[in-house]
Design a protein that fits this description.
This protein folds into 3 domains: 96 residues, Ubiquitin-like (UB roll), CATH 3.10.20.740; 109 residues, 2-Layer Sandwich (Alpha-Beta Plaits); 237 residues, Rossmann fold (3-Layer(aba) Sandwich), CATH 3.40.50.740. The protein contains 13 helices and 24 strands. The strands form 7 sheets. Strands 1, 2, 3, 4, 5 and 6 form a 6-stranded mixed β-sheet that branches. Strands 15-22-21-20-16-17 form a 6-stranded mixed β-sheet, with helices on one face. The longest helix has 19 residues.
Length: 543
């Protein structure tokens, strides 16, 4: 394996890598702005310049010092090379670059949303000068609304062009460009266009300063107050990895979490901005047609259990229905199915409808044709998990058409419906269950199917619990609880845990052990990610 010396530390790597990339992989920091591993290399910011000593091609045992600084982002790492990022020349360049970048940069850190996670702040402290030598007036540029979700503060921009390269190489939509020259140079949208592509929010993530900001997050919360929970998108079968960033029981934003095999550095705007339902229109009390004043949770669970017992007594085995939701975790669906088959060994199982677009939306790099991101047509995060649970229990499994026919013919006497938290199938579900008088709905929402239910049980959203989702490829991925359950709500898993009479509190890990014991060995080694108490900001050993 090739090895090079970076400021006295040994760095190894595999394949062909640039100096900066090899150092990043090894946990050695070299300052950089324009470089991003998912974008082309332009070497324009110049703060990553280093001194190198490279092996002589004629005599590899001899090192030859390159007379000028070279960009570490664009210079291939070579076995035996020595890299100096803290030499007199390299440090002088870092200070000069920072000084040039700050010449026209406004001193508005106290009101900038990027404060606390800004590379310009961090690098200014670590690599910049203690005071400014610039006495002239700063060039002033206006802020602009450039899209549905993005605000551009042009005077903060350092012209790293990450955003421009993203729209050209990842989304392939090319809305952004570089206009003007000299101190008048700036990023802007082309005339007649706006930044409205389905991946537009990613330019906010990759902007190293406060030039591109999220209009939905603007002036809502300081980032150092936020806590971050690793999670999985609940809006796509792709299984995109995300962070839920929250404070005091409220979600403020969703950010992508790097996974080289799933979503890399990116997420769609649907995933980024679709979480508002967590705080809107929530069902917070057990509802019952028989008790207009409401029921306690214990009374509600007793009524659910009694409805299944009465159905089996009146109609025999197979007269009950459990409708799984592909928005619940696999552990929750396993417990629900276990309880349903305990109550009625012939209990029918169906899968709730979820939003399905006509086809996947595929993004490619126009220059290379390589696929850069795919928005999946199937919007359910755990359809495969639901299908695996149904296949495991087997027996009376119904598709949606068969379900409608069986309900209308009177073959179903009682049903427990795990509802979709995102309203799009209400009319279809209402039409199917309209003849059924003994319907229990487990719902996050105060509207939709729960309105026609004999019993409504308020349950948690994905952000208020932990578990696993299985994406369309069968990849099992854990997600952690971000915020506490809303008052009056419980997770679907916890209520079926209680109905099964299991000891203690609902434990997803214990359910996965039950699943492994039942032959689903793929769940044995799954471990939930830890809940973080603060977001991952840039960390410097010297600070």
């Amino acid at each position: 394996m090739p090895t090079m010396d970076v400021d006295g530390k040994q760095v190894t790597w595999e394949g062909r890598k640039m100096i900066l990339q090899a150092c990043n992989d090894a946990g050695i920091e070299l300052p950089h702005y324009c470089y991003h591993e998912g974008l082309s290399i332009v070497a324009s910011c110049r703060i990553c310049l280093v001194e190198i000593e490279s092996p002589d091609p004629k005599d590899p045992a001899k090192l030859v010092k390159v007379p000028k600084l070279v960009p570490s982002c664009q210079t291939p790492a070579v076995n035996g090379m020595k890299v100096h990022s803290k030499s007199v020349k390299a440090v002088a360049n870092q200070k000069a670059v920072m000084e040039f970048l700050l010449i026209n940069h406004p001193l508005d850190c106290p009101v900038c949303d990027q404060a606390g996670e800004c590379h310009l702040q961090d690098y200014s402290f670590k690599y910049g000068r203690a005071e400014s030598r610039f006495d002239e007036d700063k060039a002033k540029k206006s802020k602009k609304d450039i899209g549905t979700h993005v605000m551009l503060y042009s005077d903060r921009c350092i012209m790293c062009t990450r955003c421009v390269r993203f729209t050209r190489e990842i989304s392939g939509t090319g809305e952004l460009g570089v206009f003007g020259r000299g101190h008048r140079e700036q990023i802007d949208v082309f005339q007649g266009k706006s930044l409205d592509n389905p991946l537009s929010g990613n330019v906010i993530d990759i902007c190293p300063v406060g030039a591109l900001l999220d209009k939905d997050f603007l002036f809502t919360q300081r980032v150092w107050f936020l806590k971050s929970a690793p999670s999985i998108s609940p809006f796509s079968s792709g299984g995109e990895n995300i962070y839920i960033e929250h404070n005091q029981g409220r979600i403020y934003r969703v950010k992508p979490r790097f996974n080289k095999d799933i979503n890399k550095w990116w997420i769609s705007d649907d995933i980024r901005y679709g979480w508002e339902f967590v705080h809107n229109n929530r069902l917070q009390a057990v509802t019952s047609v028989a008790a207009p004043g409401g029921l306690t949770w214990q009374q509600g669970l007793e009524q659910l259990e009694q409805s299944f017992k009465q159905a089996v007594t009146a109609g025999g085995q197979g007269s009950t229905l459990l409708m799984l939701s592909p928005f619940d975790s696999t552990e929750e669906m396993f417990l629900a199915a276990t309880w349903a088959r305990k109550m009625d060994p012939g209990c029918a199982m169906a899968l709730n409808l979820s939003r399905m677009e006509p086809q996947d939306q595929v993004f490619t790099n126009p220059a290379t044709g390589a696929v850069t991101y795919t928005i999946r047509a199937d919007k359910s995060p755990n359809r495969l998990g639901a299908e695996n649970v149904r296949a495991h229990f087997g027996g009376n499994v119904l598709n949606f058409d068969g379900l409608a026919a069986k309900v209308s013919s009177g073959g179903i006497q009682a049903a427990a419906l795990c509802a979709d938290p995102i309203a799009h199938n209400d009319a279809a579900v209402a039409a199917i269950f309209q003849p059924l008088k003994n319907l229990t709905v487990l719902s996050t929402r105060a509207d939709g199917p729960v309105r026609q239910a004999a019993l409504g049980l308020p349950v948690c959203t994905w952000a208020e619990k932990s578990g696993v989702f299985e994406n369309y490829q069968g990849v099992i991925q854990p997600f952690a609880q971000a915020i506490a359950p809303l008052d009056g709500t419980r997770s679907t898993g916890s209520l079926f845990w209680q109905l099964l009479g299991l000891p203690g509190q609902y434990d997803p890990a214990a359910v996965r052990r039950m699943m492994a014991d039942a032959g689903k060995l793929q769940y044995a080694s799954v471990k939930l990610p830890e809940r973080h108490e603060k977001i991952e900001l840039m960390q410097f050993a010297e600070l």
